[in-house]
């Protein structure tokens, strides 16, 4: 969903740029607390991996494709703040070097593809992980649903931004319907990839999965107050 | 620690294979946003990025004629650049945290929020 230059008016692009800057500043602050011996080495790999998988556009229906956004995947593997930074690094490199996503739209893309999917998806994941059994199945189900929902959520935020300042006057109903319809399909791919990757990592090294820390008792014992974050 | 290194090496190898080899087989159909833009009539408002002239623009290496090699090489370069920047950034933040918590070690009250 990399937004090119020109889709949104300059004021909206400036505004999303400011929101992106604020969000990244927040992520930097939060990441300082998340980064430890486990997450720090993983973060670089997670960003590199997301860049690679984002190159793999998969077909969704006739004449359309989608690719992983990676916000929920990153959040589960290294934590939401660090995860948001990982996706942001990917977006900056894509925008600056690969001409993927516009430069004036960089803030918009960071908001949509990094902040909305990571923090929005993480919020959904947190709710689900408490409701579902504390097991790998519970973890993967929560991750899959959160990943799935994160994509139409980002699509919806794009529609809102377009309402605020789209370059061209168009039928809002058609925009909403098409944007959501296509991205529900892309979301299925997002869920499948997220579940496959988290499943593989949690099988090999459950201790390296930030979102699975509630499954590894020796780590939760460190603070002795599991629910204190809420 | 060596277990971590093994894991990271395998992960990086997978990323490099995806970006360097599999990426060539990615769908070239317009993505969801492009499709929507065309369908609802605002695709023409898109402008070329200021970085459209980059030697890596659109996931190819300019000057490399072979399409597969060009895409794969650009993917490998991208993976390594992203890896480098993200590793440096998170390493820097982690070190910043360590020295910060050392500074504030006398008042342990603020560490209670880190759970």
What Rg of chain A, in angstroms, do the CA atoms define? 17 Å
The low-confidence runs of chain B, each spanning 5 or more residues with pLDDT under 50, are 102-115
Distance between the termini of chain B: 24 Å
> Count the helices of chain B. How many?
3
* Helix amount of chain A: 55-70%
Describe the structure.
The complex is a heterodimer of chains A (230) and B (115). Chain A is mainly alpha-helical and 230 residues long. Chain A has a single domain (10-221), classed as Orthogonal Bundle (Arp2/3 complex 21 kDa subunit ARPC3), CATH 1.10.1760.20. Helices cover 70% and strands 2% of the residues of chain A. Chain A has helices at 10-34, 39-54, 71-78, 80-97, 106-131, 136-165, 172-204, 217-220, and strands at 58-59, 65-66. A two-stranded antiparallel ribbon of chain A has the order 1-2. By secondary structure, chain B is mostly helical. Chain B has a domain at 1-25 and 55-101. Chain B is built from three helices and no strands. The longest helix of chain B is centred in the last third of the chain and has 37 residues, at 67-103. The model of chain B is unreliable at 102-115 (pLDDT under 50). At the A-B interface, helix 1, helix 2, strand 1, strand 2 and helix 4 of A face helix 1, helix 2 and helix 3 of B.
